[in-house]
Known about the structure:
Order of helices and strands of chain B: HEEEHEHEHEEH
Strand content of chain B: 15-25%
Largest sheet of chain A: 8 strands, mixed
CATH topology of chain A: Alpha-Beta Plaits
Strand order of the largest sheet of chain B: 5-4-3-6-7
Oligomer: heterodimer
Largest interface: A-B, 11 and 16 residues
Number of strands of chain A: 8
Number of helices of chain B: 5
Amino acid sequence: MNAQFTKATLQATGLTCAMCSNAINKALQARPFIQSVKADIKNSSFSIVFKENADVDIDEIRKAVEDAGFAIGSLKLTGSFNEIKIGNDSHVQIGDRHFHFLNASNWVLNGEQTITIVDKDYLTAKQFKKISESSKTKCLVSGKSASCCPGVAAGTRVYHVTI
Amino acid sequence: MKLRTLTVILLVAFTVTANAQLPNITDSRVQINLPNVKGDSVSLLSLKGKVVILDFWASWCGPCVYANRDLVKLYKEYKSKGLEIYSVSIDENKKAWQKAVTRQRLTWIQVNDPGGWDAQTGARWNVQALPTTYLINKNGDVVGVDMEGKELEQNVKKLLEE
């Protein structure tokens, strides 16, 4: 595997205090690829640890937060990377999943790195608007492969990330 | 190991649930005996005979600050008439809890179960969000959950007259 996600930092938003509810904890802990969830009070975020070598389903994290009645304000994934070449608008396959790097300079990722998901519903609406206006790629709005994604079958889920 | 498993099963089975009959504080399964700010243990059971508000909160819980402001007023008004409040903080950081108690001028019984969302006391009382409050009558029966504002005051008044 060219990369394996090991942990994540999640901020949740909603009409009520996300940290004051046990619902997000419970919903995340019910996902099979999640080892543990801890509330980081100081940073108003949740620290998630994934099971070793687990298939981390990013959209499932979003669904868990939404099932609990909240939305994602920010999701940062940390993993171990091995010789992954990135550049602006480069597409990278990690395991079975496709990633599109936005605003990235030419670089080879090695060792522990953290990426931020910038797809719709992974940021506040305001932040997403700002990012979607700055990128001309069609796939950013839909989160699915489009003409801007060479070699990725049309309609495939593509996660948009920054580093 | 078997005993531990059995204990866990029993705890889960007897956990307070929204649909189940509300407990009485003499029930061993829902008893609380935790250290206060000075480190002395105070039990919920020791308050039997008074009208009690059992309150779960944490220093980092924004809505709890507002709820505490209401409790401060309520306590001032009804303490001398027999109301007691027993606040359980699930703060993992003891200092943050003590600081919040001082800053928010919370003069009633303050105890700490430092387990965060894994706190045993919160789990036994089925606390799923903060703040959560239970209203308890002089007989030790839980008679109300998450009452606030005027509804809470009217019920406190009624229970004090019983």
